[in-house]
Amino acid sequence: MALDIHTGIQTALVLLAIALILSFIFGVRSIITGRKIQFFRMRHQHITRGWRLIFFSIVWGTLGALLFIYGEPVAYHFIPPSPTVTASGVPSLTPTITLTPTITLTPTITLTPAESYTPTITPTPHIPLAVEARFEGELTPPSEAAFSYLEFTKEGLDALYRPIRPATVFENPIGHMYAVFSYDKMEDNVQWTALWYRDGKLVHFETKPWGGGSGGIGYTDWEPDAEEWLPGTYEVQIFIGNEWKRVGFFSVEGQPPTHTPTPSQTPSLTPSPSLTPTPIPTDTPPPSVTPSPVATESP
């Protein structure tokens, strides 16, 4: 019988509760029984055993409280639900970044320009209309779908799709950034979306029907030009349908590399004379078009 992480933790909580109740009941009964015994040694043994059982009941209660508060988040962080990874088929929709100016339509609800960027950092994240217009899958997410905390890395992923040297603060230059997460109880064909913000401004997004199965490890990534990694606070939001599931933050420090390497490429492209080849005029001479072999027809 296969148990998921949530069911396993709930089972452990029930067992700890039973152990707490039984330890406390038997401890109290042992103390009461010991006080009725006339012989000192036997009375002392019963009372000592009773207090020991009561102490264990306190231990079970403490363990149960810690497991209830921290058990599931820690389990999802260190023990992925199942390593059946399909790389989640995240789309590289970098050309769609050109739609980001449409996000500026949402601040038009407010009349003061000073609040033009506040709607993008609302306490309850939402999907912009320009992104929602691209939905193709189902919009009703599974009620029990769970996503772990996001881990960020610019070093890439290992063979099991785990982040290599994850961090929350990165120093320029940066090329390819990954936001890695584990998931459980998902369903295929449900629309999922990843939004990337820099200082409250949408700079990249991915959205498509889910195809990664019910459980495993997935990621959303972004690989713009190196000079686009401006310093600031970055935020990645994960949605299933229209329901917000997880958000993660990282920061970039230092100035990105300038675009100076590109001028060095233009001289390499300047050999335009080779693109307008001189052999083309040499192909045009009429002597080659009027072949001398025609004259050989006389034999």
The domain tally reads 2
How many beta-strand segments? 9
Low-pLDDT segments: 115-122, 266-299
Tell me the β content: 15-25%
Terminal CA distance: 94 Å
Rg, nearest Å: 33 Å
CATH class term of the largest domain: Mainly Beta
CATH topology of the largest domain: Immunoglobulin-like
Structural class, from helix and strand content? Answer: alpha+beta
Strand order of the largest sheet: 3-9-8-5-6
SSE string, helices as H and strands as E: HHHEEEEEEEEEHHHH
Q: Note the total helix count.
A: 7
Architecture of the largest domain, according to CATH? Answer: Sandwich
The chain-level mean pLDDT equals 77
| Main sheet attributes: strand count, strand direction, barrel closure | 5 strands, mixed
Overall helicity: 25-40%
List descriptors.
299 residues; alpha+beta; Immunoglobulin-like; four-stranded antiparallel β-sheet; 7 helices; 32% helix; 20% strand
Structure description:
- It is a single chain.
- This protein is an alpha+beta fold and 299 residues long.
- It folds into 2 domains: 5-78; 87-253, Immunoglobulin-like.
- It has 7 helices and 9 strands, in the order H-H-H-E-E-E-E-E-E-E-E-E-H-H-H-H.
- It has helices at residues 5-36, 40-78, 129-132, 261-269, 272-275, 279-283, 286-289; strands spanning 146-147, 151-153, 169-171, 177-184, 191-198, 201-209, 216-222, 232-240, 243-253.
- A 5-stranded mixed β-sheet has the order 3-9-8-5-6, with no helix packed on it. Strands 1, 2, 4 and 7 form a 4-stranded antiparallel β-sheet that branches.
- Helix 1 (5-36) packs antiparallel against helix 2 (40-78).
- The protein starts with a helix and ends in a 10-residue tail after the last helix.
- The model is unreliable at 115-122 and 266-299 (pLDDT under 50).
